Amino acid sequence: MSVGVFFGRGGRGRSHTPLASLCESCINYLIGTTVLDKAIIFVTGMDPIKGSGGGSSYIRSHGRAAQAAGYEPHIFCLSDRDEVVSADFGFVHRTYTPFRSRGILRIRPDSQGSFIKNWVGSLVYTGHFIPFNESRLAKSIINYLKGNPGPHLIHGFHNWGCVGLKVREQLNGSGIVVKVINSFYTTGENEARLKLIGTFKSGTRLQMTFQSVEWLWIATVAAFYERRAYKNSDLVLVNYESVRRLFRQKHGAGAETRKCPYASEIALTGIAGPEGADLESAPVSAVPLILTVSRHDPRKGLDVLIRALADLKQRGVAYRACLTSGGSMLESHKKLADLSRLTDLHFTGWVEKVAPYFKNADIFVLPSIQEGSGSVSMLEAMQHGLAIVASDIDGIPEDVTNEESALLIPPGDPAELSKALERLISDAGLRTRLGQAARKRYLENHSPQVFIESLRGIYGKFF
Predict the structure, then answer these.
(1) CATH number of the domain within which 350 lies
(2) Which end of the chain has fewer CB atoms at under 10 Å, N or C?
(3) Main-chain phi, psi angles of 406, to 5 degrees
């Protein structure tokens, strides 16, 4: 990833010297002296350069697709300083906020402390924390757009669409045309409720307490902003029919809604990255490698997978397994694996490049109890032609069909997951057939070109 600091001023008076390699025209563009007719404003919380997990990857993917469609992405996000940096997926406009995790997380380095750090670190940058940051981001965008009549298009993600609405309200009255589209992939209350259920099944009392607080906040305060963005945007984008149904059930009729496909970041970059050391040095084995790439989050069902793997081991089924990602429940899941004596299970924590793991795997597992929409990591598995076992929930059956391109199982059922995994472990032909069919579905519905053409058509409607 290519990143360069263009200009900025720290939230506490820290300044940043422009790099010598910057061209004067780029700087002039960023400070508003050129026409912004091909700029798309993205609004999110987490800095996509620094962020890990599917959310940040989703933003970067949209940036890359927008570039390929002929637009210039400008991503406004939160940070500990004000500055603009360039990345290979667009320009990132960092906006200072005092509400951030840095500096308040000097806590004990045990599993409970790790949970608190990850929980706070993720929550403060989500759209659920928007009441504390809406005005800051809106002011930053207004300063960037003012002086140019537009039309300007702001693309928000989840509750961050409310920032675009605030900008539209202030600038439209000044004769500057602003339109707002917003992408949704689940309702906040649905996600928080199922995280809470997952924590009650496998978490500690402390974790249950924190998740209860999160659910209460989202169900009362954050839901107001979600409803506002859903009902008042000029266009709402959903990636699955399951998401459209969730919003209609929760909030009723809203703005015009359109389904927009998406593609994984791996597909849009085409860059695998360096091999992971643990995979590069691993000996060639005839024993299938089971992979999941999923945040250690109560709603992701990784405890269900660990119990299924323990069942396989108890029954003498040979396998290797790798859980690739980090998250608030990582230490709890490691403890569960230790109690089950799973010596063939490897935890990586967060990794920068996931493509090597997909290339070395034979089976991909998505054991989630909730996704809200679909799964970026499952799209990556489909792209690599892996045999897939996934929970039959939300948007997953919109992407794959049971027994044709995947094995779909009831969520939260270790016994059924164990049976499905054993089928794939013991039947190489079944793995090949399902993997080829999944690859075909990926090319039809989630290839980069499908995503790029869809965005080009949506954005072009507003210019």
Answers:
(1) 3.40.50.2000
(2) N
(3) -170, 170
Do residues 152 and 250 both lie within one domain? yes
Q: Which residues have CB under 8 Å from 237's CB, separation 6+?
A: 181, 182, 183, 184, 257, 258, 259, 260, 458
Q: Which residue has the tokens 């409607």?
A: 461
Closest CA to 240 of 226, 254, 259: 259
Integer CA distances (angstroms), 166 to 72, 154, 353, 458, in order:
22, 11, 36, 22
One domain for residues 165 and 139: yes
Same-domain check for residues 288 and 299: yes
In the chain, the number of structural domains is 2
Distance CA 317, CA 417 (A): 14
Domain coverage including residue 43: 4-263+449-460
Q: pTM (2 decimals)?
A: 0.79
Q: Could you give the CA distance from residue 222 to residue 186 in angstroms, rounded to a whole number?
A: 13
Residue range 353-408, pLDDT digits in tens: 888 999 999 999 999 988 888 999 999 999 999 999 999 999 999 999 999 999 99
Distance from C-alpha of 199 to C-alpha of 190, rounded to nearest angstrom: 14
Count CA atoms closer than 13 A to 446's CA, side-chain side: 28
